[in-house]
Amino acid sequence: MKKIFLLIVIAISVAADARTTKVSLQASGLTCSMCSNAVYKALKTLDFVQEVEADIKTYTFEIFFKKDADIDFDKIRKQVEDAGFSVTSFVATILFDNVQVSSSKPVQIEDKTFLFVNTNDGVLNGVKNVRILDKGFVSQKEYKKNGLPVLSPRSYHATI
Amino acid sequence: MKQLLFITVLFLSAKSKGQELYAVTEPASNMAARSIGFRVDHLIMNEINSSKINYHLIPEIMVGVSKKLMIHGNVFFSNRRKQFSAEGGSLYGKYRFLSHDAVQKHFRMAVFGRISHNNSDIHQEEINVNGHNSGFEAGLVATQLLRKVALSSSLSILKAVDNGNDNKYPYGSENSKAVNYTFSFGKLILPQEYKDYRQTNINLMVELISQVNAGSGKYFMDVAPSVQMIFNSQSRIDIGYRYEINTTMLRTAPNGIFIRLEHNIFNAL
To answer: How far apart (Å, rounded) are the C-alpha atoms in residues B127 and B119?
Structure first.
């Protein structure tokens, strides 16, 4: 009985096995180090963030997370905006293990729903960079160009 | 004026990164939400036709209320009376209502206002609600950051009222309103390449500050070049000189040195 239970648990976890290992974002609207420092310090205050590595030259922040933490993309975006700037690129590094991806069907990864656009249908394995395309995660110009509709909270348009 | 043009051209042609943390004016950008800044301004101004130095000390606290709103509160001290003493204070607020960001550039606009109380005697036609006159100021500021250069311009209206301690506004209510306009230019000189938040930044600024009295039509125009150093991406020192280019107004001490010390604490609230 115990063995069957264990097998079921393994089966479920395999089917949904994908997790965000890192987020890399580029901030826009700034050039000064004091501005960059404000973004860096704001990102570090998030309770699910373990470490932030800033590349001041490219205005890019690599965000690493605490183990089993509830990673909230919108909270990350809001920290950059509260510091006075905008997110121009938001790429989540996700570790996939046998996850079926299709542009017609939303994919549940952790507590988030991803609607993949411009992505080939197939089974994903290994580390992939998933770029978020919704408002506030790309430049104002790109958002207008893409013309994607607004989704419910924790749901995102994404591309690989 | 030719010299000024030369300096401006020199700055524009230099190769380095831009900056908009001006020493005299405020840009349209705000400080980060939930951060607190502490500022101490020293003005060491030469009194005209005398050997006296007018020393003004203005400590200030700045709070980033939200990403769009920031508030400053300051207190004015000076030695204009026989003893160095407190003369008043003011509250300043700025609301950013427009922001277009792209990598390494932005265009922003904000509205701002100041309400000020001052107990000192009124001794000049210039209306200054940041240390001399009781009154109000309301205006609009636009700032363009373009990779290596930051340009900013503001337009505001001022209204002086009677100062405290029975110091009446002496030039008549028809001459108690004025328009200020400013143009600021900033450029980051060092470091040439950012690697670390602990690198010291050096910025050069040139600002033009002008006022026209709405009643008398009298005006002044000042230029204020300054050097700024930012330490640890958190603290700054500005040192500059304010120089009167032209005036038809009575002013007591338009020329002199200013020094600003500032420290910012991010995520303090």
So the answer is: 14
Greater pLDDT, A132 or B190: A132
Dist. CA B171–CA B186, nearest whole Å: 36
Select the more confidently predicted residue: B234 or B7: B234
Across the range A30-39, mean pLDDT stands at 86
Q: B33: distance to nearest CA of chain A, Å?
A: 5
CB B94 within 8 A of CB B69: yes
Beta bridge partners of B243: B223
Q: Do A59 and B104 touch (CB under 8 A)?
A: yes
pLDDT, tens digit (0-9, with 9 covering 90-100), for B34-76? 999 999 999 999 999 888 999 999 999 999 999 999 999 999 9
**Cβ A84–B30 below 8 Å, yes or no?**
yes
Q: Which two three-digit tokens encode residue B220? A: 């002044």
pLDDT higher than threshold 50 for residue B182: yes
Are residues A84 and B34, on separate chains, in Cβ contact within 8 Å? no
C-alpha B207/C-alpha A36 separation (Å) is 25
Residue spans per domain, chain A: 2-159
- pLDDT value at position A32? 79
Rg over CA atoms, chain B: 18
The CATH number assigned to the domain with range A2-159 reads: 3.30.70.100
Rg (CA), chain A: 17
3-state secondary structure of B133: coil
Q: Which amino acid is at B1?
A: M
Alpha helices, DSSP H, located in A48-139: 73-82
Q: Evaluate whether B112 touches B145 at the Cβ level (below 8 Å).
A: no
Mutate to test the interface with A, among B35, B233, B265 (most CBs of A within 10 A): B233
Per-residue model confidence as pLDDT tens digits over A122-148:
898 999 999 999 999 999 899 999 899
Q: Which residues of chain B have a CB within 8 Å of the CB of A33? A: 194, 197, 199, 201, 230, 233
Dihedral angle, C-alpha A18, A19, A22, A25, nearest 10 °:
70
pLDDT (0 to 100) of residue B12: 42
Q: For chain B, percent helix, then strand, then coil, each to nearest 5?
A: 5, 60, 35
